[in-house]
Amino acid sequence: MVKDMNEKNFRKCVYIVLFILIVLFFTKDFNLFSDFYKNIKPVKHPERLDVLVNKNYQLDENYMPSDLEEVSIQFAYEKKYLRHEARIAFETLAWDALQEGYQIILVSAYRSYSYQEELYHHYVKTSGKNYADRCSARPGHSEHQTGLALDVMGENGDYNLFEETKEFQWMKEHAHEYGFILRYPSDGYDITGFKYEPWHYRYVGVELAQSLTKENITLDEYYFKKYGK
Ligand SMILES: [Zn+2]
Q: Which phi and psi angles does 226 have, rounded to 5°?
C-alpha cells in the first residue's frame, strides 16, 4: 500500500515536471520570459553605421535615411534602395562574386515604416501573431528601415533556400570583407530575437564587420558591450 502510494506520487511528480517543461518550451516561443517588445527604447542615432534596431530599439515612424540610392538593376530583382555607402559596398560585392561565377541578387533592401506595418499585419492576418513575431518585425523594429540591411537570393532563385546555394558559401567567406555581417545566425534567437536568416545581411562597415566575424558575436552583443543596454 505504502509502496503503491510512493509510486503514485512519483508518477504524479514526473507528470508535473513534464507539464512544466512543455509549458516552458512553448512560453519561450511566446516571449513570456524574454524582454522582446518590452522596455522599448527609441533609436537615438539612426544614421550611425553600427545602429542597433531590434525588438527593443525602435526607429521613429518618420525616419527615412537621407542618402538612399537605387541599386544597379544588374544585381536587384526590381527597384531597390540602400544608403549610399551600403549601395556601393553591395554592388562591389555582387560584382566581385559574379567574376567568380556566383550570382547574388538583391530581393529586399530599404523598407519604409508603413511598408513594414503592412508586411507585419499581413503575417498576423495569415499566420497569427506568434508566427508574425518570429518571422517578421513590427513596424519601427525592422533594420530594413535603416537602409543598411538587405536580403539576397542565389542560383536557386529562392531567398528562403539561400543556405543551399554556392552563393551562401561565398557570402560566408567574403561578406565581411565588404562590410556585411550575417545578422541573424542559427544560434542567435535568444539574443537577436529573430530566427536564423541565412539570406539577411547588414552593412556595418568593413572594420566592424571584420571584428564581429572574427569574434563571432552578434551586432546586439557588440552594441550592449559598447553602449550598454
Ligand atoms: Zn531581411
A: -80, -45
Residue with the three cell numbers 569574434? 215
**154 phi, psi to nearest 5 deg:** -120, -145
Of 197, 207, 215, 221, the catalytic one is: 197
d(CA 22, CA 19): 5
Predicted structure pTM score: 0.86
- Is 197 a residue of the active site? yes
Residues around the ion ligand 1 (C-beta < 5 A) = 151, 200
Numbers of helices and strands, H then E, in the chain: 8, 8
Q: Is pLDDT of 65 > 70?
A: yes
Cell numbers for 81, please give them.
Answer: 534602395
* Res 32: pLDDT: 54
Query: How many residues belong to the chain?
Result: 229
For residue 27, the CA-to-ligand 1 centroid distance in Å is 25
pLDDT band, very low/low/confident/very high, at 16 (cuts 50, 70, 90): confident
pLDDT tens for residues 24-41? 665 555 555 678 999 999
**pLDDT, average across residues 76-102:** 97
Ligand 1 centroid to residue 100 C-alpha, Å: 25
Q: What residue ranges in 16-136 does DSSP mark as E strands?
A: 41-42, 57-58, 68-70, 81-83, 105-108
- How far does residue 195's CA lie from ligand 1's centre (Å)? 11
Ligand 1 center to residue 128 CA distance, Å?
Answer: 20
3-state secondary structure of 227: helix
Question: What is the predicted pLDDT for the residue at 14?
Answer: 80
User: What average pLDDT does this structure show over 210-219?
Assistant: 97
